[in-house]
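FORM 7B: Structural annotation worksheet

SECTION A. Query
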Amino acid sequence: MGSCTGNALTQWLNTDFAGAVQVARNAGKLFDEQDALNIYSKATILDNISGQYPPTDTGSTGNAACKAGVKFGYLKSYSWLFSFTSLQAAIEMTPLITGTLWTKTMFKPVNGLVSVGSLANSNVAGGHEYLMSGIDYKAEVFEFRNSWGDTKDWPGCKPGGYFAIGFKDYRRLIDSSGDVTVPKIS
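SECTION B. Predicted structure
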C-alpha cells in the first residue's frame, strides 16, 4: 500500500504540535491507520499523479496529503522548504513531513542509523514519505519516524520506528527530487 503520505501526515497530527487538532477534530484521540488511509485516498484525488485510491494504489505526494489535511479541517495551511538551511531552521520549531527516494540500502538500519548508499536505479526501491521529528547537530543527523512499525517489523530501527539519516546522506536525497512539507495548524 502506497499510503505513506497519509501515514506521515497522520504521524504529524499525533505529535504534541497538533494536540489542539486531536481535541477539536478527533475527540482528543490519536489519529489511526483509517485516518491515514482517508488522507491518502483524498490526496490521490488532489495530486497530479494519474490514478486514484481506491481502486488503484498509485502513491501520492506530501503536498497532496497536506491539501487533504486542509480539506478535512486538520490543517489551516502548509508550505514547502526549498533550501537545506531553511530545513535545518524549521525542524528546530516543528516536525515536518518529507518525501525522498528510498533505497534498498535504507531498509537495513544499524542501531537506528540509515545509510542511503548509491542513488543508482539498481539500488532505488521507490519513493517514501515519512515524519521528520528532530535534528541532532552534534551527531549531524536528522531524526525521523517511519510508518512501518517497530523493531520487529523493521529490524535495526529504534523502538517506535525511529531512525536517523546523516546530513550528507539526507542532502543527497533532497537533491534527488526530495521534498519537505511543513503542515500548519494556525
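SECTION C. Observations
The two ends are 31 Å apart (CA to CA). The mean pLDDT is 95.

SECTION D. Sign-off
Analyst initials: ____
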